[in-house]
Structures are given as C-alpha cells and as structure tokens.
User: Which sequence fits this backbone?
C-alpha cells in the first residue's frame, strides 16, 4: 500500500494540474483533494441522505447517513438481537416464528423502499430472508420491523423484496427450485427435472397500513430465480425476473449451471395474472406459512400460521410468463426510470444486453418465439433486444440509473463501476472499487425519479483497505460523487454483516415523520403499568408476573420477595418516560436470554427462571440519568415450598428500627 | 504516478517486457507534460473529447486496470498464491505474465475468481508465427491481446479430471472452447494439451502447450 500512497501523492500533484477528464487516469484521480470536503458533514449537522443497507448474513438492516458514512442505526429484522431484546422479549419472539418454529437467524439480501407513483414515499422499507424464505416490512416512523411473512413452496428467497410502482405488490422468487410443499419432497435429488418447480410470489401490500398477504403464486419451471425488478411507467403491470441454471443442474452448479450460452429473463404480466385470479383460474393449495405482525399499540407481536395459497400455473395460463434469452447466468435484472429498458447482467457474459419493453410487446404480439422452455414461450433474443453494451468490463452484476439517460453497472471480476449511456450503449466512464464490488446504490436508482448525487459501491473483498482485524474484516463500501460527468471516489466506510443491495433517499422524505416516543395512554399491552400506582406482582401457580415500571431513575417495584425456586418470572417492564431518547434497559442476573431495551411509553417482557434460592439483582442497562447507576433492584428467591410471602415495593422496605443498625450503637 | 501493476519481486524475471512497459509509461508521462503545457498556454487540446465519442469504449476499456492498484497490490506473502502470483513465479510463463500486464488483466485475475486459466508456456507462444507476440504487445493491439488472453480464462474452477469429452466452455471473452478427453488426456480446440495443473487460491491453472486462438470476429 505504501507504493500506492507514494504514487498517489505524486498523482495528486499532477491531477491538480491536469484537467480531470484527461486520460489516462491515475491514482491521483482515484481520490482527489476535495474528496474530504465533499464527504464532510460537520458535527451536529444532518446528513443529506438516509442509506438503508442490507446486512446479509447478519440478518439485519442498517441505516447510514450520506455523505458522511455515519452509522445511524442497526435495525433488527430476521436475526435475534440481544442488545435490543429482539427475538428474546416475549413481545418480539412471535416475529421470528415460522412454519419451522422459531428461527433466530437469517440472511437479509435486499432492501426496497416503498413507492407511490414510482417515487420513494418513505413509509416502509422491505427486506428479504434468503434462507428460510420470508419478507419483512419495516416502518420508517419507528425504524422497527412491523411485519414478517413466510413464503410457502420456496427455498432461498433471493429475487425479493422488489415492489411495483405503487407498492401494490412486493415479490419473492425461489432461488432453489424444490418440490412444492404439497408434493412428496422425499425424492431422489437427481430427479430435479421431473420434480422440482420454481415459484414466484406476489405479496399484496395494504395501501394504508402496509399489511402483507400472499395474493398469488405463479408456478414456473424448475430453475434458479435470482433477481427482479418491476416495470414502471409504460411497463407498469409487468415484472422481470432473472433466472439461471436453466440447465436444471442439481450438483456442482459452479460448472453445470454455466453450460448454456443463454439463460433467461422472465417477463411476468402480473395484471394478466390478476385477471386470471379474478376469473377463478387459480388453484388452492394446502400449505403452512407464518404471518407475523407487530403492533405499536400493544407493543407485541402475533404469529398466525396460514394454511392456503392460490397458485396460477404459468404453463397452463400461457400469457402470464415469457422467457427472454439472456447471456450467461444473468444476475441483476434492472429496469430504467422510463420503464422502457430492462438490463440483464450475465455474470459470466462479455457484454450487457439491454432489452426494450416496446420490442418485447411487439415480439409477443407477433409471436416472435424461439419455441418454448418447459411450456413457456421463449421470445427471440433479437426481437426483444434494444442493444448490447460491448466489452463493458468483466463480470457484470447490477445496474442503477441516474434519470439522465445513464446507467451504472458493477463488475465483480474487473472490480469497477462503469457508467454507460442507455440510448447508444456507449461506455462513458469507469472507476475502480476496492475490491470486488457486488451491488451498488444510487438514491432512488431503481425508481422513476433517481436523485443521483451519489453512488455507493458495496464490496465483497476488503483485504488491506482498513487496519487489519484478524481473518474477518468488515465489508467496505465506497461513496462516489456522480453529480458531474466523471465519477469521483470521495469516501470509504465499513459496513455491518455483508451488504448486498441498499437503497438511499433524501433525508427530508423520512426524518420529519420519525416517532420520538410511544404515547403511554395508547399502550394497550395486557401487562402495561401506566403509573407506579398500578405496578404489582401476581402469582399464578408457578408463574409470577411482575408488572413493573421504570422512570428516571428507579424501577417500581425494586424489592421483590416471595419468589420460589422453580418459578417462571415474567418481568413486564413499562417505560413511563414521555421524552425523546430516554430508553431504559432491564437486565437480570443469570438471565439465559438477553436484556430488554424499553422505549419511552413501551412495555416489554423478559422471562426469567428462578433456578435456585438466592439474591438476584437487576438494573438499568441504558445510561439514562446522572443516577443511572442507582437504578437497580433486588429479587429474593426462596426454596420451593417456602412460606415467605409475596411482597413488592419501592422506597418502603426499610430496616426495622430495633434490628441491625440500632444494636451496636450504644 | 504510474504505478507498476504488479509490485512483485519476481518481476525482474521478465525484464524485456518490463522494459517495454516502462517505455510505454515514459511515453505517457511525456504526453501528460505536453498536455500540462498546453493547458498553461490556454490551449485546451485533445484531452477533453475522449469522453462520449465512439472511441470512448476502447479508450475506457484499456484504462480499466491502470488506475490505482487492485488486489494485486495487496501486501500479503502468507496467503496461498492466486493465479497471477503463480504465473509470475513460473519461469516458463514470462511471456504470458508480460502479456497479462500489457492487457491490464492483472487486477481482474487477482480477484476472488473462481478462475480456470489455460496458461500457454513460453514455448507455446514461440510456436506462433514470428513477430506475432511482439505485434500483440503493441499498445494499438491491446484489444486483440485482451481478446486472446480472455479466451484463456473461464469463470469457475475446473479440475483436470472434471473435464468431459465434448464439453463446451464459455470463456471470458465471450467465445467458446471445445474440450476433448482421450485416455485421461485433455485437449482444447483439438490442439492445446494440458501438460500440468496447479491449484491456486482463486482457481486453477492448467499449463497448455499451445496458444488458443479465438474464432475470427464476425
């Protein structure tokens, strides 16, 4: 790296003298002297954009500020988060329930902000679980996961959670084709071609409340669905999915799924699918999937196991799905802001094909087909093609747009972002990334109205970018200023987990709607304590319910006696504060789950087993006041069968006058 | 300002090519000085119009790896060697290594892969008609050189014993190679034989005794 530094310094001298657009580029233009000022956000000042970054194998989503790259929040979604009690508190456990029971971890790959008329509306952001297939909806007034829906007939929900332009639907597609849930899955793996099917799901989203429901699934041939994007504007009503492994290999896909020169982009006419659904062409299939909803009024989640889904068969209902040949295992499937151009990025291809929506429509009208694949028409490549970007780089993956007629594509193998013009398919600029870029994000870059000031590259390999931290390194993100003709690297920042897709939006769209606290009057948790006067401890057999409150700087009650070994104790803790940024924490010695972190006005419950007699302190974990360290209490556990009465109090349980203190004094 | 693409010690093994590279760099340095002078005198010359013209594709392609260093510049002598480092360490592949540098493919091949690289030996290059290699090493032939070298790389790690008779391999340049296997011996396009295989951290190198020539462009 020293060599780079030296050459960089030398380069700086030159680049300050030379015009930026002069070629060839050098290390100097990779980081210009004004980069620091462009990424600088003064202390106390807000960033211009929110950047919502998927956490990959962390299962979470993170919110960053741009251009500073400051981490604002990690939002727990599919993985438990002991820091916030997510998946540990009784109220949040149902959020991670599935048809397989409680699943504490997943792999969140893509983020998608809700849209109205093709523009980001700042209401919700969706995330997909890639392992146990699910889609989550996060409320952007609270930055908390409010809903998770599981997907039947699926395995590896990768081409998700992309939405239609009014958030009518959020889609999901199976990465692993599998035997459907109502078929016998106990079949030889090498019967893939006969027994394995690919399902894509259309999940409707409530216009007002965002509630998700699987409207229908489309049964497709057994392939790997990879990524997707909705049509917009003129192509609203269509959805486009990339698919690979059209070889239908079931082993060593590294080699066997790379055999064909072309795989497919699948164009789905979802308006047509809706018509078929209305006409009763769907088949009801018995399945099992969980639908989990969190309420900000009860401050708790419910999980319902649903048992039926409606299936439309793409082979029978001929005019829903069409395959468009796309070279070499297409990965990214991106639609430009006008809705006319669909970019397929074959990760092994030496070019980028750009398809035209108008041409696809004409090809369908003219039946310009190259036969069928598993009963689905295959449109002739040339009939759908707008053109190809020739020799753009090596290993194209994903494309975003700036709304000015340009596209930006990442190249994993050649480690770069390439800017090209959609109309004439010419390469305009390229910048290296450090290293091996996967996804990229332009604010609004997959919507009808990009806000293309910045571009962020999310890299897969870090190696020497930061101080070493042993074998595992934080994945790096790089921020580029793309307001001019040339992309300019201005910042490099580490991320949480493994970022895949990310989205960004102007801060103004979200920041003014942010909730500061929950109104205690509206708290309808069955175990709420709306004031210290209502706190209590209730025994129900071997269960003990502690209705506890907290406010700066004490718990009520803070002395509890009469709990017996073997009891299950439920601490229902209500934070009585009605003030911004005053959460209280609750931690109990020996708890084998986690802490609670209770927002103002909220109630959360920690289950704790009284294993053996003794004294168990509890305390507030979130520094809340000057006397935070005084915010504590004791719970006494007596042996099973003990007759110590159940008592609880705060500020009352003082030593008796004739006992300990008085005796020695004399 | 113009950093060597591969800061490896064994680079000295390929001095002729390196010299060539250095000459190339000197020329570019001179170019910059001239441009600098022209800016000073207020005459804005050629350097601006390279952006959105037809030539831009070529121009931009060739500069891909010549920007700041890629992973080849990472200082790490402990990890298993990638395909580039292995090739650099082989005295039988000096021509190939020089060509990879000239074609700006070092950054790409230092990446995570997985790559299968068919690596022609110096002898294999020498079998080409006289002057072929020298011709390809010229800057104006860079695209041809890239095309040929990318025709020697496929994305996925394929061990020698995994090749199947009659198999088609899609190569990085977009063209295909056909594989034949007879008595365990692998031949590519009917004339290049795999004579050794070396596993690398990011794939595998199969040493071949002939240069693979991509089909003529339509």
Assistant:
């Amino acid at each position: 790296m020293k060599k780079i530094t030296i050459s960089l310094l030398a380069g700086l001298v030159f680049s300050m003298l030379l015009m930026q657009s002069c070629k060839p580029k050098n290390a100097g233009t990779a980081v210009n002297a004004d980069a620091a000022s462009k990424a600088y956000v003064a202390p106390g000042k807000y960033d211009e954009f929110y950047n919502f970054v998927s956490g990959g194998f962390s299962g979470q989503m993170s919110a960053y500020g741009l251009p500073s790259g400051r981490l604002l929040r990690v939002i727990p979604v599919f993985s438990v988060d002991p820091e916030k009690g997510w998946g540990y508190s009784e109220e949040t456990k149902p959020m991670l329930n599935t048809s397989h029971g409680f699943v504490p971890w997943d792999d969140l790959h893509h983020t998608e902000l809700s849209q109205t008329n093709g523009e980001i509306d700042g209401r919700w952001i969706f995330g997909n679980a890639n392992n146990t297939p699910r889609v989550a909806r996060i409320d952007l007034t609270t930055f908390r996961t409010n809903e998770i829906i599981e997907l039947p007939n699926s395995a590896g929900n990768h081409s998700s959670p992309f939405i239609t332009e009014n958030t009518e639907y959020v889609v999901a597609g199976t990465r692993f084709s599998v035997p459907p849930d109502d078929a016998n899955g106990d079949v030889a793996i090498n019967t893939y071609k006969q027994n394995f099917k690919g399902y894509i799901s259309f999940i409707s989203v409530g216009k007002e409340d965002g509630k998700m429901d699987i409207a229908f699934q489309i049964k497709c041939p057994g392939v790997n669905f990879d990524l997707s994007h909705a049509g917009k504007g003129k192509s609203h009503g269509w959805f486009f999915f990339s698919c690979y492994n059209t070889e239908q290999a079931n082993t060593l896909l590294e080699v066997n799924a790379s055999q064909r020169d072309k795989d497919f982009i699948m164009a789905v006419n979802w308006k047509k699918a809706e018509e078929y659904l209305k006409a009763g062409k769907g088949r009801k299939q018995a399945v099992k999937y969980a639908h989990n909803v969190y309420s900000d009024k009860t401050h708790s989640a419910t999980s319902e196991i649903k048992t039926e889904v409606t299936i439309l068969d793409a082979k029978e209902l001929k005019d829903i799905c069409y395959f468009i040949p796309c070279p070499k295992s297409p990965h990214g499937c991106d639609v430009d802001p006008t809705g006319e151009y669909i970019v397929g990025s074959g990760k092994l291809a030496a070019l980028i094909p750009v398809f035209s929506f108008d041409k696809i429509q004409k090809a369908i009208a003219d039946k310009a087909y190259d036969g069928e694949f598993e009963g689905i028409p295959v449109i002739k490549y040339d009939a759908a093609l707008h053109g190809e970007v020739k020799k753009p780089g090596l290993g194209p993956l994903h494309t975003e747009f700036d709304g000015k007629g340009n596209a930006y594509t990442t190249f994993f193998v050649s480690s770069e972002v390439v800017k090209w013009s959609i109309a004439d398919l010419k390469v305009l600029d390229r910048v290296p990334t450090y290293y091996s870029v996967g996804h990229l994000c332009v604010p609004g870059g997959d919507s009808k109205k990009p806000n293309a000031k910045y571009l962020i590259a999310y890299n897969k390999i870090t190696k020497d970018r930061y101080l070493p931290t042993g074998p595992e390194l934080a994945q790096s993100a790089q921020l580029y200023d793309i307001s001019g003709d040339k992309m300019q690297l201005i910042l490099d920042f580490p991320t949480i987990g493994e970022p895949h897709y990310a989205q960004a939006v102007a801060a103004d769209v979200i920041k003014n709607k942010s909730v500061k606290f929950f109104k205690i009057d509206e708290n309808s948790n069955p175990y709420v304590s709306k004031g210290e006067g209502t706190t209590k401890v209730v025994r129900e057999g071997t269960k003990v319910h502690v209705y506890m409150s907290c406010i700066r700087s004490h718990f009520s009650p803070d002395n509890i006696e009469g709990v017996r070994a073997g009891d299950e104790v439920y601490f229902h803790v209500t934070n009585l504060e009605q003030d911004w940024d005053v959460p209280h924490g609750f931690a109990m010695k020996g708890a084998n789950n986690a802490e609670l972190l209770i927002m103002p006005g909220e109630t959360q419950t920690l289950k704790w087993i009284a294993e053996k007699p003794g004294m168990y302190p509890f305390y507030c974990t979130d520094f809340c006041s000057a006397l935070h360290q005084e915010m504590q209490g004791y719970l006494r556990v007596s042996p099973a069968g003990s007759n110590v009465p159940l008592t609880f109090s705060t500020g009352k349980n003082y030593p008796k006058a004739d006992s300990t203190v008085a005796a020695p004094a004399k | 300002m113009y950093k060597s693409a591969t800061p490896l010690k064994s680079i000295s093994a390929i001095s002729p090519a390196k010299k060539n590279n250095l000459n190339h760099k000197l020329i570019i340095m001179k170019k910059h000085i001239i441009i600098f002078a022209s800016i000073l005198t207020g005459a804005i010359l050629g350097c601006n119009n390279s952006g959105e013209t037809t030539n831009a594709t070529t121009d931009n392609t060739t500069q891909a790896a010549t920007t700041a260093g890629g992973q080849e510049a990472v200082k790490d002598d402990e990890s298993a060697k990638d395909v580039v480092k292995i090739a650099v360490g082989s005295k039988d592949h000096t021509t190939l290594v020089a060509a990879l540098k000239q074609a700006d493919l070092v950054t790409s091949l230092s990446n995570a892969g997985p790559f299968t690289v068919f690596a022609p030996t110096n002898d294999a290059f020498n079998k080409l008609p006289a002057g072929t290699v020298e011709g390809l090493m010229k800057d104006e032939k860079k695209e041809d050189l890239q095309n040929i070298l990318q025709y020697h790389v496929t994305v996925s790690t394929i061990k020698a014993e995994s090749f199947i008779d009659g198999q088609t391999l899609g190569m990085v340049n977009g063209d295909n190679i056909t594989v034949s296997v007879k008595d365990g011996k692998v031949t590519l396009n009917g004339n290049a034989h795999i004579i050794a295989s070396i596993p690398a951290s990011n794939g595998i190198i199969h040493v071949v005794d002939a240069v693979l020539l991509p089909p003529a462009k339509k």
Summary: The mean pLDDT of chain B is 78. Chain B touches chain A through 54 residues (CB under 8 Å).
